[in-house]
Amino acid sequence: MREAESIVKEGEFTYQVTGEEGKDVIVLLHGLMGELSNFGGLVDYFSSTHNVIFPVLPIFEMPLRKLSVTGLVDYVERFIDYKGYTKVHIVGNSLGGHIAQLFALRRPEVVSSLTLTGSSGLFENAMGNTFPKRGDYEYIRQKVEDVFYDPAIASKEYVDGLYEMVNNRGKAIRIITMAKSAIRHNLGDKLHGIKCPTLLVWGREDKVTPLFVGEKFNELISNSRLDIVEKCGHAPMMERPVEFNSSFEAFLADIKVKEPETI
Questions:
Q1: Residue 199, domain CATH
Q2: How many domains does one find in the chain?
Q3: Cβ–Cβ under 8 Å, residues 200 and 116
Q4: How far apart are CA 49 and CA 156, in angstroms?
Q5: Which of 9-23, 155-169, 183-197 has the highest mean pLDDT?
Q6: Which residues pair with 92 in a beta bridge?
Q7: Residue with more model confidence, 78 or 164
Q8: What's the whole-number average pLDDT of the chain?
């Protein structure tokens, strides 16, 4: 990974970019406590063929009164307009997938494709809508391990980061605010409005947004396909990057083949 060299701060936006201008744009949207390293395998694989952009969502910086799923959609919309992108492929994990769906509904002309993996928007079984157990390191460690099929991926550094986060009262309030907002913004009755090609990549052992959630997305989004990743939890792009990249690459190639039919 080459994160540090690509960090850009411009006005209200902090983002990371790999690849070159002029190539097809892939926008990555992270989850509630996600970061670029979660998408490391995708970034490394696709940066030679695409312009991969990772806007850092201002979950811990946005004024609390504006913090919501729709507030983050507004932010992503401003960012994409600021960058002047007229067509993007959006990839969203967990909360990032929720934001991606709302953006695709709001600005369908901009979204070439949508890829959702372990996405919220219909159902999620996370920490609930109350304060995570502050001061209980083992509880936090178990919650982090539950994200993955292989608990070894939940490194001590990863657990320590989340533990620090939920023990910071200001950050904990924001986590709960966002969790409640996501629950309120259930998209079950709106997903029929997403018409762009949509890829659903789901871990069979996802405990946060179980496989039935991916199957329901597949049912409700007409132009969608569901790829199931075996022995994988809530973050396939992180836990099974080879399988995820293969699925995403085939999806993008399929879109390319079909493009002339829509001209």
A1: 3.40.50.1820
A2: 1
A3: yes
A4: 34
A5: 183-197
A6: 29, 116
A7: 78
A8: 89
Encoding tokens for residue 186? 């259930």
What is the average per-residue pLDDT within 145-165? 85
**CA distance linking residue 263 with residue 253, whole number of Å:** 17
The range of the structural domain enclosing residue 63 comes to: 4-125+185-258
High-pLDDT (> 70) share of the chain, %:
93
In 3D, which of 117, 94, 100 has the Cα closest to residue 229? Answer: 117
- Asked if residue 226 is part of any domain, the answer here is yes
Q: Is residue 152 in a domain?
A: no
pTM, two decimal places: 0.90
* Tokens coding 215: 């199957």
Which whole number is the average pLDDT over 112-120? 97
Whether 166 is in a domain gets the answer no
Is residue 140 included in any domain, yes or no?
Answer: no
